[in-house]
């Protein structure tokens, strides 16, 4: 009997074809609900997930034959990995599959902000030809602070090469990564020197609301603030206040505390509408990692880590 792999999100057809070629039976249910997953799970060997669904203890308990979970993406906050592993279920993620896309998006938002591309474009659409009010700032010679030096922090660093910036990176759990390109730094050094700060952190109890009022007040000068990691790492109320007070030069946000617009509370709607009105804020709907290339690299790396495909990187 072929082993069934339940795919719970929209994926590149490459994954379905590859699983079939490797003798698996893909069960493709991109709109599946939690209840439906739990009903199907007893006959499933492999589970492919994104942030669409929470993989908690109850779900894992229904996976009697479940051998592995493949996360198409980086963040593992919705999977109870410790419990899965205690049941002998292997969990793999694929931050290496979408980090280039995220690094490019962080750079794109930064360039967009520093040269008033969004603002001047919106003005032109209204027939306003404004040059002086849109005079930009060069990245050349500036200091970029990177908080979190995992896959996406490193990818952003790579994309910044060629801009002649000084890069300071902070990672609570890493050391010894000083190179000619990047200098390992304390948060205090970043606060004191940065012109740009970019978050590349997973969402954990420790990082929740790490960017709060104290954080925004700590910078010596108004920085451009980028977040392509997780919305809940930022206290949105503090962010809005910092923008309002001119403590930030601008913000590029791909992620938000609540990403389901239909469920916004009145306060969340007010904050979001305020951000939308600011010309020095660029917002995107959590698409930083959503490149066509990532849609193949993520499942490819997941299958490689599970030993279903040979490792293409050695
Ligand atoms: O964690 C990630 O890799 C990205 O945020 C994308 O996750 P998602 O597409 O599963 O929401």
TrEMBL record:
Domain D-isomer specific 2-hydroxyacid dehydrogenase NAD-binding: 107-288
One Pfam family from the record: 2-Hacid_dh
GO CC entries: cytosol
Occurrences of domain D-isomer specific 2-hydroxyacid dehydrogenase catalytic (ranges): 5-305
Matches recorded under PROSITE patterns: D_2_HYDROXYACID_DH_2
GO molecular function, one term: NAD binding
Keywords: NAD, Oxidoreductase
GO process terms (BP): L-serine biosynthetic process
Superkingdom in the source lineage: Bacteria
UniProt keyword Oxidoreductase present: yes
Family: Belongs to the D-isomer specific 2-hydroxyacid dehydrogenase family.
Name of the protein described by the UniProt record: D-3-phosphoglycerate dehydrogenase
């Amino acid at each position: 009997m072929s082993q069934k792999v339940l795919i719970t999100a929209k994926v590149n057809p490459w994954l379905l074809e590859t699983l079939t070629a490797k003798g698996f039976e893909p069960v493709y249910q991109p709109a599946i609900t939690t209840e439906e997953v739990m009903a199907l799970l007893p006959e499933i060997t492999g589970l492919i997930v994104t942030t669409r669904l929470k993989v908690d203890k109850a779900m894992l308990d229904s996976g009697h034959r479940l051998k592995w979970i493949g996360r198409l993406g980086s963040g593992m906050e919705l999977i109870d990995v410790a419990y899965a592993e205690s049941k002998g279920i292997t969990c793999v993620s694929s931050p290496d599959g979408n980090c280039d896309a995220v690094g490019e998006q962080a750079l794109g938002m930064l360039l967009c902000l520093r040269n008033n591309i969004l603002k001047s474009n919106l003005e032109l659409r209204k027939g306003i030809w404004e040059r002086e009010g849109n005079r930009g700032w060069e990245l050349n010679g500036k200091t970029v602070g990177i908080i979190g030096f995992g896959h996406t922090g490193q990818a952003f660093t790579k994309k910044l090469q060629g801009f002649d910036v000084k890069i300071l990176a902070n990672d609570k759990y890493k050391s010894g990564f000083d190179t000619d390109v990047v200098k390992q730094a304390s948060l205090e050094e970043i606060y004191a020197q940065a012109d740009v700060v970019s978050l590349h952190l997973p969402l954990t109890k420790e990082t929740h609301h790490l960017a709060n009022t104290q954080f925004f007040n700590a910078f010596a000068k108004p920085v451009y603030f980028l977040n392509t990691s997780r919305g809940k790492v930022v206290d949105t109320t503090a962010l809005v206040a910092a923008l309002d007070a001119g403590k930030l030069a601008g913000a590029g946000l791909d992620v938000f505390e609540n990403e389901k617009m239909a469920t916004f509370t009145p306060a969340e709607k007010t904050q979001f509408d305020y951000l939308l009105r600011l010309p020095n804020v660029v917002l995107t709907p959590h698409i930083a990692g959503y490149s066509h290339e990532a849609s193949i690299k993520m499942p490819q790396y997941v299958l490689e880590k599970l030993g279903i495909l040979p490792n293409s990187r050695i």
